[in-house]
Amino acid sequence: MSLPSLLDLSPALHGLAERAEPSVLQALGGAQALADWPAQRREQLPRLLACSDFVHQQILRAPADFLALAASGELERPLGPGELREALQQALQDCADEDTLARQLRRFRNRQQLRIIWRDISRQASLQQTCLELSALADACVDQAYAWLYRQHCAQFGTPIGRRSGEPQHLVILGMGKLGAFELNLSSDIDLIFGYPEGGETQGARRAQDNQEFFTRLGQKLIKALDAITVDGFVFRVDMRLRPYGDSGALVLSFNALEQYYQDQGRDWERYAMIKARVIGGDQQAGRQLLEMLRPFVYRRYLDFSAIEALRAMKQLIQQEVRRKGMSENIKLGAGGIREVEFIAQAFQLIHGGRDLSLQQRSLLKVLDTLDGQGYLPGEVVNELREGYHFLRYTEHALQGIADRQTQMLPEDPQEQARVAQIMGFADWAAFHAELMRWRARVDHHFRRVIADPDEDVDAEQETPGGEWLPLWSEALDSAAAEEQLAEAGLQNPAQAYKRLLDLRHGGQVRAMQRLGRERLDAFMPRLLAQAVSQPDPDLVLERVMPLVEKVARRSAYLVLLSENPGALQRLLSLCAASPWIAEQIARFPLLLDELLNEGRLFSPPQGEELVAELRERLMRIPEDDLEQQMEALRHFKLAHRLRVAASEIAGSLPLMKVSDYLTWLAEAILQQVLQLAWRQLTSKHGVPRRSDGSLCDGDFIIVGYGKVGGIELGHGSDLDLVFIHDADPQAETDGAKPLDGAQFFARMGQRIIHMLNTLTTSGPLYEVDMRLRPSGESGLLVSSLSAFARYQQQEAWTWEHQALVRARVLVGCPRVAAGFAAIRAEVLGRARDLDQLRREVSEMRGKMRDNLGTRATQAGLGELAEDPAQRFNLKQDAGGIVDIEFMVQYAALAWSHEHPQLLRYTDNIRILDGLREAALLSAEDVTALQEIYKAYRATAHRLALQKQAGEVSADQLLAERRKVRHIWQALGLN
Predict the structure, then answer these.
(1) Nearest CA to 592 among 610, 575, 617?
(2) C-alpha–C-alpha distance, residues 937 and 303, integer Å
(3) In the predicted model, what is the mean pLDDT of residues 769-793?
(4) What is the spatial distance between Cα 50 and Cα 43, in angstroms, rounded to a whole number?
(5) What GO molecular function annotations does the UniProt record carry, in alphabetical order (predicted)?
């Protein structure tokens, strides 16, 4: 595609050029300095100044560099292979220290970035040339910085030697994404993965260092050399989140460890990412060996139908991103954007690349050529995709060339719009935007056709689904006829149902809809009615689903989703009929409708490790400094998976114990990411805290879960009882630019974690957090040191706090500190105790709870086991209920764990009861009874929660269970 040539400056930009020219001419030494310039370059200067703040500022900052570029003719010609690398090598020759290295890298980058933006905006470079030179610039900066740092590290720490080969080792630096494919954009970050061939130690220094430690330190230095922002700016923003395990994984891994990870745990999205992997720095030969080792992971040798299903899941993820706030104006992620073109190409690569080697290439445009040449796609489709991709990428460069800023969002400011239109060669924004939308529509059309599910095809000759309900919805029937049709369809209260439909039709939300939205609603409502009347209780279905319809009426994309996916609509109605809690959740958060698209996924929640990987993948797509988007992503992830668990529980595919497992795993996956986000944010600002021996902390922080989350018994609406513990020197300062002492650092970290969990956003809070179980409760420090926690538990804690400790376990955090916590817990709980005193204290605490939290019948002293059906039995707090069982288990653990330490191995009641049976401390009959009663109580509580009812039943229910619990309670000597 050839863009229109640059037009004369639009009136909106004349003023910008006129204001910029005097200062630039002065910086360059006056108009005479430009006298020898070719006429074309002189004409281009005011256009570039008007269109790009970066060009303007860079000329003022380094006029000599700009004049040198002009004198060399580099503004008018592409650089040949190796020229950038050679130039940078010379610039770094005399670097004496890391500060000089950083300064030279940044100045070199800024000079070349100015040249590349100049050539791109003036259309002296093609899209391919611009992307190639940007990628070559990144390659040179990464590799030359690595080479300089490697020499310095070897001089300081010795040369890393392979244990098997006995040869010196080098880092292998993989460039991923657009960098790997030589498709880098004007202001892109670079995705890297670090590896090294084999383990071993350094030689030539006083103290040998493990190869992984050597390369980890070197990798950290390299990232800092490229990524840190100084007075000279930055070289490239570096993103390491594509490495195995993401932020929680090691920065550098050996080839064996990389191969093992991808073989055992590699996900489909990692196959997707690895398609473009390329060695950009370090040991090129070893890097080629590594990519060959990983090739079987990326390209399967057969047509893998599981990959096709995974691609459809990826499609849904993309569609979810499109609907996120603001995404429609994002030319990368929005509908018809750059990502959709990339996805089309890489979909064919993933499915067919193992058998068709011609698809095993990194360049998207070359893959499109192959799709055409090999008949995967019609030539006219490929041509449209190619031209659309060119237009979108030129637009991306226009957006980023203005201020050298990483953005793909269309501007709202009229001046910025005028600049983009000017760069793209259009007379005004309206003309450019119309052309952009035309290309996006064509790309989106092809994207939908390529990735569509076969069962999404519709026979045009079929009668419109729900057509028999169209007259009723459109008010072509009078009220009597409409109510008669509803009654004949099985509704018990047709008048009320018809009124509900009319209230929607004439309500404010619908009246305010635009024409397209109203057409979508008119197409959807007959489908809804047709499916609703097929439900066992259509009155109830309509009552529960109509608030959702009203909520999404003006966001009609959701109506299209349900209209075009009858299976999703059927699942929506079934779930709403089964649970008002689910109906309310979907009405409050309509994004959850996406989860209904895939029945298999909806009713098959992922395992714990899969949850962690999926959440990490979602967060990888969000800029590290965008806390608001990260918090929204965490909340949507929680809402979506909580819905899947509830749906599976209702469908009977997930038993009670598994429900709690999944909800607990979900909380742990979220806490892990929240902890990493908080740590990254604080260390980037204040540096890393120190341990008592002066060494830097490697996390040294844990989140301990008590209560339901500690006991792996979370319910659908459970809050989190948490305690924060660190093991750093509370007085030593962090090593950053704005140092804090350790106590302040971790207090702020605790506050940051609670903020991320508690803050009410448009998607609600993540979790309600209760910190009252920390040492000294609400009057105590938010975060305790490990030693202070030990002292408190050993010397000050009450018996009820030790009871709570029975159900406490580390959820996420540093393994070393977690081991310290486990040792303290075992020591505190494993003491020999005075059993009479213990029984008295446990009984007194239970009595206070029952009096304060039980039903009115209990509080009024009407008997421990009220049996009057007019009274209520609180499943949790009343005599014979859940808390009685929990207190018995806690009493037993405190009473006997000094002789039977296996009672402390687990924190959940069911497995502690197993331990009591194995140790013959309770009879097998009593243990089985307590376990079954406990599960029955919890199952009842779960069902009531899904029905939005309080955790109470009639007092004449569960009598045998309550009597059995009280009998065992009394047999233990409790009262």
Answers:
(1) 575
(2) 49
(3) 93
(4) 12
(5) nucleotidyltransferase activity
pLDDT for position 455: 42
Round to whole Å and give the CA distance between 285 and 295.
16
User: Hunting for tokens 């097929």 — which residue is that?
Assistant: 534
Residues comprising the chain, all counted? 975
Greatest Cα pair distance, the chain, in angstroms, is 104
Give per-residue pLDDT as tens, 250-274: 999 999 999 999 988 888 778 888 9
Which pair of structure tokens corresponds to residue 944? Answer: 């009531």
Per residue in 3-42, is it b (16+ CB within 10 Å) or e — as a string? beebeebbebbeebbeebbeebbebbeeeeebeeeeeebe
Helical residues (DSSP H) of 579-655, grouped into ranges: 580-588, 599-602, 608-620, 627-651
Residue that wins the pLDDT comparison between 436 and 942: 436
Q: Give the pLDDT confidence score for residue 148 in this predicted structure.
A: 96
* pLDDT at site 6: 43
Distance CA 951, CA 941 (A): 5
Q: Which two tokens stand for residue 837?
A: 């005193």
Torsion sign over Cα 389, 392, 398, 401: negative
Domains and CATH numbers, the chain: 1-125 (1.10.4050.10), 305-456 (1.20.120.330), 467-597 (1.20.120.1510), 659-829 (3.30.460.10), 835-971 (1.20.120.330)
Residue with the two structure tokens 């009929």: 577
- 786 and 680 Cβ atoms separated by less than 8 Å: no
Q: Could you give the CA distance from residue 932 to residue 926 in angstroms, rounded to a whole number?
A: 10
Count of alpha carbons within 13 angstroms of residue 496, beta-carbon side: 10
pLDDT tens digits, 652-690: 888 878 889 999 999 999 999 999 999 999 998 999 999
Q: Under a CB-based contact definition with an 8 Å cutoff, are residues 733 and 739 in contact? A: yes
Q: What is the CA radius of gyration of the chain?
A: 33
pTM, rounded to two decimals: 0.60
How far apart are alpha carbons 653 and 656 in whole angstroms?
10
d(CA 398, CA 394): 6
Q: Which three-class secondary structure state does DSSP give residue 783? A: strand
Give φ, ψ of 672 to 5 degrees.
-60, -45
Mean pLDDT, residues 217-240 taken together: 95
- Give the model's confidence band at 463: pLDDT under 50 very low, under 70 low, under 90 confident, else very high: low
Helix (DSSP H) and strand (DSSP E) numbers for the chain? 42, 14
Long-range contacts of 95-98 (CB under 8 A, 24+ apart): 95/148, 98/149, 98/152, 98/221, 98/225
Question: What SS3 state is found at 160?
Answer: strand
DSSP state of 741: B
* Two tokens, residue 648: 């599976």
DSSP-based three-state secondary structure for 196: strand
- Percent of the chain exceeding pLDDT 70 equals 93
167 within 8 A of 161, measured Cβ to Cβ:
yes
d(CA 185, CA 389): 13
Q: Are 209 and 201 in contact (CB under 8 A)?
A: yes
First to last CA, the chain: 85
Distance CA 924, CA 809 (A): 27
Residue 699 and residue 728: Cα distance in Å, rounded? 9
pLDDT in tens, 292-307: 999 888 887 544 444 5
CB 935 within 8 A of CB 657: yes
101 with 95: CB under 8 angstroms?
Answer: yes
Rounded Cα distance, 503 and 553, in Å: 13
CA distance 219 to 241: 14
Please name the residue ranges forming H helices in 901-958: 909-918, 924-946
The DSSP bridge pattern shows strands 190-196 and 252-254 to be parallel
Task: Return d(Cα 273, Cα 832) in angstroms, integer.
Answer: 56
